[in-house]
Amino acid sequence: MKIIILTIPVVALICSQLIPIGYGTDIDNYRIMLSAKTLITEGIYTPSRNFGYPLNELIMAPLYIIGKNIATNTIALIVFIISIFVFSKLCQRFKTKYPELLTLIYALHPILLKNATVPLDYIWSLLFIMSALVLLKDEKTLVAGISLAIAVGFRPTNIIFIIPSLIIIKNWKERVRFSLTTVVISIFFYILPIIYFTKYPLSISTGGDRSILHIIHTTLSLFGNIGWLMIAIITIISLISYFNKKGVIAEKRDTIMLSIFILTNIVIFLIFPYEVEYLIPLIPALLILLSKRVSRHLLIALFIAVVSYNLVWFDKTQNGFTPRDGIIVSQITDRKSLEHKRDKLPESDIEEPSMVITALGEALYFDNNKVEIVNRTENGVFDNKLIMSKEKNIYFIYLGSEEYIKKMANSGYHIYYLPYARKFTMSVYKYDLSRYGDELNI
How far does the chain reach from its first CA to its final CA, in angstroms? Predict the structure, then answer.
């Protein structure tokens, strides 16, 4: 426990560099904050996306008033620090051989650190999922059901973790009690979205790259190349040990439960393979499962691989493996870059009138007094919103159909696009923006 406590200042030091730089690079952070701001300032609930993420949206509302990104990001860090101690308890409940070493890997995992200072629910969800598993191990099924329901209140797809959780419970009566508690309380948390969707149609966004290469690349980014190599080695050794050694029934039950938990998370990811963060819930289960029958030396090697991924990783290119900035290093750079775009895009030194395809959406116009929404029902635009600079005759859209871009070009607008917007447009609308305009680097 002393080692874990000594790790907390390191975690705080790393994350303190990210806290003051906006809300993160994922546009969903800004969607959450827009929903929270509308709720706290106008008293109107509008889901940030899809089914709604009510607890996430509700909690961010007062934090926006208290201190905007400083408040939201600081609270997220506190939640992550709490989750480190909960993960340590989870390791103890599953009787891992090296709980402190596993907790160090968890605490310094780059994907977790990256999301420990953003408004999105990933760390909040993980905290309550792990708490539910700890409580189930302690045979406190009612409280465990409440904990998992809170996780569902943060993210609706967390409801699927009822399935592996039932394996921990040893009798059907308690399984029914746990399931009913989770479902009933989850429904209560979704009262606001339910009321909203009785008035407005439910729109589920399924756009994005679903190719096999994208799924593989996204999955690799969870631990990095070297991290996955170590996991592959540990998995092979663990399987050999598992089949060569008879384990007690309780241990086999744990192995089955952890395996099904991981597979359940993978199923969710394969349905929505857009962000590596969708794989975050499997990290604790994977670490615990890997530690069952391997030596401390292999786990230390995994620890080194995971920690180094914060600083550097190796990308496969035509010239072999090329070193790139690690997750935390690149996150600092990318957050600063996004804040720079928010500030400089509205006053770009480009031909007028012009239209810029940004793929930024809410990240451009949320709390940005240099732009304004001039149309919320713009046909042919991905999110129907037309944004305009307050200083120049420059319009901004998230993405646009090919017909819409053609129409604007023929109407005398100069077309510009940010580099990522071109790639995203090819994925969603299947055409190349470079045929209609010029790349804009800000």
Answer: 47
Contact 109, 280 (CB under 8 A): no
Provide the b/e sequence for 282-311 (b: ≥16 CB within 10 Å). Answer: bbbbbbbbbbbbbeeebbebbbebbbebbe
| CA–CA distances in Å: residue 19 to residues 27, 60, 129, 365 | 16, 15, 25, 20
Please state the pTM of the whole predicted model: 0.93
SS3 of residue 171 by DSSP: coil
CA 36, 37, 43: angle at the middle one, nearest 5?
85
pLDDT of residue 177: 97
Could you give the CA distance from residue 1 to residue 85 in angstroms, rounded to a whole number? 9
Structure tokens at 285: 């289960």
Q: Which pLDDT does position 230 carry in this prediction?
A: 87
* pLDDT score, position 253: 87
Contact of 120 with 69, CB cutoff 8 Å: no
Paired with 146 in beta bridges are none
Quick one: which of 83, 117, 87, 122 has its CA closest to 14?
117
Nearest of 441, 433, 366 to residue 400 by alpha carbon: 433
Question: What single string gives the DSSP state of each residue in 12-50?
Answer: HHHHHTTTTSTT-SSHHHHHHHHHHHHHHHH-----SST
d(CA 422, CA 358): 9
CB atoms within 10 A of CB 390: 12
| Phi, psi of 59, rounded to the nearest 5 degrees | -70, -35
Residue 417 is predicted with a pLDDT of 97
Q: Where are the beta strands (DSSP E) in 149-304?
A: none
- In 198-326, which ranges are E strands? 312-317, 320-325
Domain range annotation of the chain = 2-312, 345-439
